[in-house]
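dude i think i finally got it to work??
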Amino acid sequence: MSSKRARKSGGKARTKSRAAPARTSNAKASTGYVAALAATPYVKQANELERKPTKQSGRKGAASRKGKPAYGTAAAYRQCAATARDTSKRPAQRISALRDMTPGMLDDARQFASVLDILKNPNEPTVVRLAALRSLEAASFAVNRFDAYRNDYVQALRSITNDKDEEVRTRVLGALARMSDRPAQELLLTGLKEPAKALVPPEKALQLLSYDVHADAYAAARDIAAKPPTKAARRAALRLLAADATSAPVFTKILKDKSETAAIRQLSATALHAIAPDQLQEQARQILLDAKEDDQVKAVSLTALTDLRRADQGDVDDRLYQHVNRMHGRSDSALVKRSAKRFLKKYKR
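look at this
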């Protein structure tokens, strides 16, 4: 009998053991939600910001098992704000608090102002200031709710465009550039024209200006492409000019110039395809007919003629076809051989 009772008892115990995982505590659910929010990009966070926080249900109401306010409540956001402001806390703790308070930031003007204060304070650790900026940027995606704070936000960013911390300065200018902020654009352009006044390196300024390009930005980019302070600045200038149809002659000249690197000539070919496709087709043909051309540039030209040629541009001529056929048989470059094979297959005679 004792063995039967033991088996019955064991069976009940096993039944309870299997059922136990089905019960998920509010604390665990809250922890999972915090982790999920931390992993989301700004756009997903914005969905959370568009909704008013809801209180969690449970036998202990809004309080977690540890006596702390449940995540998503006004009390929890106030606690996060206090931790974020507390300079005695470790940076990692403050960064975590800034992240967790983001969904509730727009419900309390004082909390929003406290995050702005952290961002503007040059005595704060850089990592904490950047975390404050990330939190503010995330909040700005909730466009309608953010409108009441937008002016204060923009003014705060403008006030630290000349911050002594280069990383903060660069990130702030980036945030303003993405908003097409004209004063920030003027600062970037001034730095390109007068290097002594530059707030960021020229390549970074050109990248930020590309968010909303004006004619004066194209003019500055052409000047830098002609007389570049660095190779990186020239590449950035050419990338910006790749959207300017009037810059086609610049890219045609570079593509024809054998003294240019293969990478820069390839960049020029890509730009021409976007702004002057007929020019690209003509230059690609001339490159392939030149026996002294670089193999990598030949491969780029073959790709342009094989994959980028429009139907209305017609078939390739016999002279070019025969030249590529000989190139396929004689070239020592595996890349050229592969590209030539695709060309010959498409335009098979």
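Residues 246-349 form one domain.
im so relieved honestly
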